[in-house]
Amino acid sequence: MAGEQTPEKGSGMCCGANAPAGPGFFRKGGWLLVALPAWVAAYLSAHPLSEWIAFRLLRLVPKSHLGEAVAFFFYDVPKVLLLLTLIVFVVTFLQTFVSPTRVRNTLSRHREGIGNGLAALLGIVTPFCSCSAVPLFIGFLRAGVPLGVTFSFLVSAPMVNEVALGMLFAMFGWKVALLYALTGVAIAFVSGFVLGRMRMEGHLEGWVQDALKAPALGDMEEEHPSPAERITASVQGVKDIVGKVWPYLLAGIGVGALIHGYVPQALLAGLLGKQAWYSVPLAVLIGVPLYANAAGVVPVVEVLLGKGAALGSTLAFMMAVIGLSLPEVVILRRVLRPRLIAAFVGVVALGILLVGYLFNALL
Known about the structure:
By secondary structure, the chain is mainly alpha-helical. The protein is 78% helix and 0% strand.
């Protein structure tokens, strides 16, 4: 009789194993099947929600300065935070498969050249705004990628991507799109190369330097982390990075929203003519405080060109907006000390100025 109960007990355990499969499945990462559609739904609802808040709930007037500024703020805050969360999660997850030591050893052979070129080209296929690229910047450093190579990616990712190139091609033809791509990659390459040669790793913020010293999960390749452990590490990466960056992000978007709503486009176009020697530096100075992604700034470029702004000055303005924006600088302050931020802004701005003057002289 006792022996007959064993199969029943085993059978019961079999059924019991199926019973908690749901909770176990979610603990091992199955919750992502729910989280991903929720993320997509939240991202798609950001724009209509921002307009509902600004124009229905707060009853602001559409197309007014205040209304547009408020709608911009409530649209970009959830959009950028969602992008940051997703990017940090994915990058941290991928880091668990790669040894930082191996990455560092591989890139060390191309530290001063090919590494910068590869990083600049990689930026073309990552359609993220400058604020979204910052977590990738931190993730690259944590993976052992040299600072200069990482800066090449940070410049290229927002400035030269398929969104910008596609819209430029559709509006102005392949020549303008190709010129923009080549000059953008050149700026990213040279900027990263110069910053790498300056050896300014000591000007990273203390918590970043501590994070670089800490062993990453990817260093323990022999242990082969389970999928659940990789997902846990990714969630922790989101908490660590997004949790430190979000106040600066809100401040940067707030400044960008005010300028977005209150700076008239007609005034900008009137000052960016080809005849004025100061049009290129002025375009950069105007573009830096503004905040927009590639899809948002290209229509503004079309308006500026239509009102007589020079091509070089306008493209310099575009590069400054999406490659050297104030929100990016504000967020970078959380990870870089002032001297390194000044070097980054100075090198990239100089590259943009040279491109602007070159385009104005040749076209």
